[in-house]
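We modelled the chain as a single entity of 254 amino acids. Its sequence is:
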Amino acid sequence: MSLFSLSGKVAVITGSSRGIGKAIAERMAEQGANVVISSRKAEACAAVASAINGARGSQVAISIPANIGRKEELQHLVQETTRQLGKIDILVCNAASNPYYGPLANIEDDQFRKILENNVIANHWLINFTVPQMIERRDGAIIIVSSIGGLRGSPVIGAYNVSKAADFQLARNLAVEYGKHNVRVNCIAPGLIKTDFARALWENPETLKRATAGAPLGRIGEPDEIAGAAIFLASQAGSFVTGQAIVVDGGVTI
């Protein structure tokens, strides 16, 4: 069996109706996983699950909508996945939000709270709901999609960057806590990726030029280029990797 095979595994991916999450779900399904498509909008989730099932020629994807800002919906996501598919082997915390652009001095308290709650605390909730069954089976892979923003400052997305830096530490701490149970926790830190979430940063030619000026590869990334890292971390290929942040940014941070 391939080191990258996910045959027999069940993967829950939040924010998977589009962008990076969708690419991760599609590629994990290609590697043999049953995947759960989850985001706020039920119709969008159902459409992605249907497309994956059509491409694979079998029922390998289901949709379970959930708003990451609502704890009870995340609990339902875990419970319903377990009811329908029997277990969760892989959890990808990909969904995030950023309602504010500008200096930290001007951010409203509610905006800052929403960023921290959706990007950090919601991950903590979802992991806590999922990890007991992984501990019981002594097997599990948890992946948090962070950002290279968590490695540096910004006058525009500083609050978002604070939350993504916190995700690095969340993964490190949980890796220490759960390592003895053979449950691995890692982060992926994408650079600028061509998604709707980052559209404001790549759609404008001048902004795109500035963003890629210091990139050794001279371009922004595609969602599939993050999916590969997720498959590595979720599979046997990444079985000795935990507590790490894998940077996938075309070399921008070097």
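As a brief sanity check on the tokenised model: The longest helix spans residues 109-137. Residues 10-247 form a domain with the Rossmann fold fold (CATH 3.40.50.720).
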